[in-house]
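Researcher: I've been going back and forth with a colleague about how Protease Do-like PDZ domain-containing protein might be arranged in three dimensions. Neither of us has a model we trust, so I'd like an independent prediction. The organism is Gossypium barbadense, in case that matters for your notes. Sequence below.
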Amino acid sequence: MGETRKRGRKPKAPASTTETMDFQYTSASNATQTDYVAAQNDVFSAANDSVPTAAAAAKNDANNPAPARRGRGRPRKSEVGHMEDTEPHAAASPERRPYQNGAVVLEPPPQPVAKWESVAARVMPAMDAVVKVFCVHTEPNYSLPWQRKRQYSSSSSGFIIGGKRVLTNAHSVEHYTQVKLKKRGSDTKYLATVLAIGTECDIAMLTVSDDEFWEGVSPVEFGDLPALQDAVTVVGYPIGGDTISVTSGVVSRIEILSYVHGSTELLGLQIDAAINSGNSGGPAFNDKGNCVGIAFQSLKHEDAENIGYVIPTPVIMHFIQDYEKNGAYTGFPILGVEWQKMENPDLRLAMGMKSDQKGVRIRRIEPTAPESHLLKPSDVILSFDGVKVANDGTVPFRHGERIGFSYLVSQKYTGDTALVKVLRDSKILEFDIKLATHKRLIPAHTSGTPPSYYIIAGFVFTAVTVPYLRSEYGKDYEFDAPVKLLDKHLHAMAESTDEQLLVISQVLVADINIGYEDIVNTQVLAFNGKPVKNLKSLANMVDNCNDEYLRFDLEYQQGVLVGR
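Model: Here is an independent structure prediction for Protease Do-like PDZ domain-containing protein. You can compare it with whatever you and your colleague have in mind.
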C-alpha cells in the first residue's frame, strides 16, 4: 500500500517490525498504548497493570515510528498463534475548542480502550488487595521444654477482606513473634496484629492499626463454590522473585481433603495451578475477580505434577463467621463417633436393615463427646439433619457429585444441635445431639501455647503431643516412635476432657537417680498406687505426698523409687 500524505504534515516513516503480545508476561516500558491488543480470553498478566503515560508514549513514538497502515477488517493471526496488532490509529486532527478569552486550545481526541484494559480494571482491585506477609517465628523446643529454638523468618501471602482484616494461612504465622505486611507496589512494612488462628482449617486473621495501610485498597469479594473445570487464578508471592506472581489453572476435584497442618479433614479444592512455597495464604480468583479459596498446600510426589489444594469459601466463611459470632475461633465440631461402611448385604441383614434403608454402623463413641450417653455402638446412622446417609458414608453434594457426610457436620458451629436418626434393634430413633470439638488423648497441635513440664529428682515429666513426637523422632515419627505411643496416638480415646498421656521424657543425671538414666519416653501410669490423670494432678500429688519415698509406676511393669 502506498503511503498517504496529508496536507501540511510530514509523512511518517514506516515501521520496521510489528510488535506482538501473547497472553503471558509483556513489559509495558517498550510498547505504546496502541501496542496492546485485545486478548482472546480473560487471562491477565501480572505485568500488565498500568497504562503508559503520555510522556512515555511520546518518547516511544519518537524511538519507534508507527507501522504502515493496513486495510480495515479483523486482525490477522500470525503463524505462531499470536494475535497481530490491530491497525494503529491515524493521528486524528486535534479538536478545536474556543477558550473564554478568544484563544483556541488544541485538545487531543479520546484514545480507544483496549479489551485487556477492561479485564485488568475488573481484576486489578482484587490483585491490589494481595499482600506479602513477613513473619518471625520462635518455635518451642518440645524435647527441652524450658527453652525455645532459634528464631527464623518466613514470607507468605495474604489478602485484605472487609472490616480492615487480612486473611492468610495459620501455618504462615505459627509460633509468631512478629508479623509484618507489605502491600503491592509499596516499600513500607506495616506491623500486624494476629486476631485469630484456626489451626484445623489452616486460616489466620490479622489486622493493622495504621490507617495508612488501608488507604487506596478495596477488600476482596468472595464468590460461590466453583464447579469442576472452572478457571481459577492463584495470586501470591512465591519463591523465585519478590514481586507478585500469577498462576492459572482449573478446578480438578472437590472433596473432603486431609488438612496437613490441622490434622483434620474438611472440604477442599484440587487445582492444577502451580502452588509453591510462599503462595500459602494467597487468594484464588475466579474469572469474575472474586475469591473462591485460599492456597494452602500442594502434593509433591514423583508420580504427580501440578496438584495444588485450595481452602474453599464455605470453610473460609465458617472461620470468619465463627470469629464474628464468638469473638474468637472456637473450631469445627465433630460427631465424635467412628463408623463402619454397610456395603455388605449380610451385615445389613444382621443389623435388621430393610432393603430401602441405608446408613453406616457406629463402631466406637468418644467418651468425651456430648452424645456418648445417647448413641450406642452398633447403632446405624440413617440420616443427619434430614439428609440421608448412604452405605458408603456419603451424602448428595451437587448434581452428579457425592461427598462424605462429615461435610454436613463441619458446616455446623461448636454448640449447635443436629437431628440424628439411627436404627437400633430394628427400631428408628431420633436424637437432638449437641456438637462439640474433638478432644484427643494425644493432641495434634498445642494452639500456640508452650509445652508444660514438671521436674522432680531429675526426672522430666511432660505430656505427649504430636509436635513432641515430631521433635523426638522427626517427620517420620509414625514409623520411628515407640509402638506403645503410636498405638495410643492412633486408637486411644480420652476418657475425660482434661486427660493427658504423661511420659518421662528424659532423666537429668544426678546422684539421686543413679540407675535410671536409660528411661526415655516411658509412660507414667500411677504415683504411689494412684492413677495419674494429667501433669497438674501429678504435681499436686507429689507436693502433697508425706511418704518417705516417691514411687512412680511406669509402662512395661517398670518402677521408679526415689527418696524425698
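Researcher: What would you highlight for our discussion?
Model: I'd start with this: The radius of gyration is 32 Å. After that, consider the following. The chain is about 15% helix and 30% strand.
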